[in-house]
Amino acid sequence: LVTGVAKKSPLSSTPNNHDKCPHFAYTAMHGVGLPYAIQSFQTFFSNDLQSHFHTVPQQSKPDPTFPTVPFPNPEEKGALDIAMLFAEQEKCDIVIANDPDADRLAIAEKSRVTGEWTVFTGDQIGTMLGHWLWERIGKTCGQPVAMCASTVSSKMLSAIAQTEGFHFEDTLTGFKWIGSRASALQKEHGYRVLLTYEEAIGFCCGDVIFDKDGISALGVMSELAYHVYANEGSSLAQHMQGLYDKYGEFVSNNGYYICYDTSIPLKIFDRIRNGGKYIQQVGEKYDVTSIRDLGCPGYDSEQPDGKPTLPTSSSSPMMTVRFANGCVAQFRASGTEPKFKYYIELRGKPGIKRDIVVEELKCMSDAVLEELIRPEENGLVKP
Prior knowledge:
22% strand; globular
C-alpha cells in the first residue's frame, strides 16, 4: 500500500538542505506498526535521510498489555509522554505515533524556538494533508479532484476546497461511509480522490485502498514536514498558522456528556424539531440559518426538496445546526458508549485573530449547550 501510494503520486522527494530537516521520533505504541513505518519512510525518502528516523525503544514491540501507556490511543492524555521525552533526549523535532494496529496517525512537534510542544488535532492533520496533496498533486493531475471527511470533522478542508476549486463532500462518521463515498466519487463520477479523513486521527492518502491507514499517512506527513523545514525554514505549527491566516481560523469545542438514558437524545432532538418548525434562534443573538436532521424521515433545509443527501436513521439520529455567524453545531448519541456527543465549530474571517474567535466560540457554546441540550434538566453529566 505504501509503495502504491508513493508510485501513484509524485510525492517522493529529498530536500537538499539536510541541516534544516527535522528528525522524527516514532512510536508504535506497543503495536505492529514499526516495520511498516520504516518501510514507509524508506519509500518516501532516500537512504541518506534514514538517520532522521528514530524509534522509541520502550514502545517499539507488540505487547498486548500496553505497559507504558494509560490507554493505547495516541489521542488520550499522557499517551505521547514517553515518545515526547525520548524526542527531547534524541533532539527530535516531531513525534509520529500510530495506534497499535497502525491505522491511525498522531503528530506532535517541539518548537525549536520556545521548546514548547504542539499536539495537533486530527482536523489539523487532515487539513494539512489535504492542502499538501492538493498543492503537490491536485493542481496539475489533469483530473477533477475530490476529498471527503466525516460530517463531524472540521469544515476547514471544505472551505479550502471552495477557495481552491476542488470538490469536497462530508459523510456519516466511520470509514465504511467515508470510504464507500470516496470509491463512488472515483468510479462513478470520474474524480481523483486524494484524501479522506475523520477527526479521530484516521486518514486515507491517495486512492489505492479507501480505508484509514496510518502508515501511508506517515509517509505523506513526513514529506510535508521535510518540505516545511527545509524549503520554507518553518515548522508544522507555523505552516498550520499560515493556513489559518489564508482561510480563516477554525476553532472547535468538541465533547460529550455521560448519558445512560437512551430516551434523552430523542427528547433533545424533538425539542430542536419544534413540532416540525425547527428552532430559528438560540438566545437573543444567534440566528439559525439551516438545519439538517438525520433522524427519520429526515430533513435538510439547504436542499430544495428538504431531503438530506446523507442516510437517515431512527436509531442513530444526528442533528446539524448552522448559524448566521458561521458556527456549526452537531449532536449525536454514541452507538457504542453511554455518551451524548457534541461538535461545535466557529470559523473566523481571514485576518481575525484566533483568541477573538476562541472567546466568541466559548460564549456561543455555553449558550448552545444550555439552550439546546439542557444538561441539568436532562440529567447529563460531564466526564
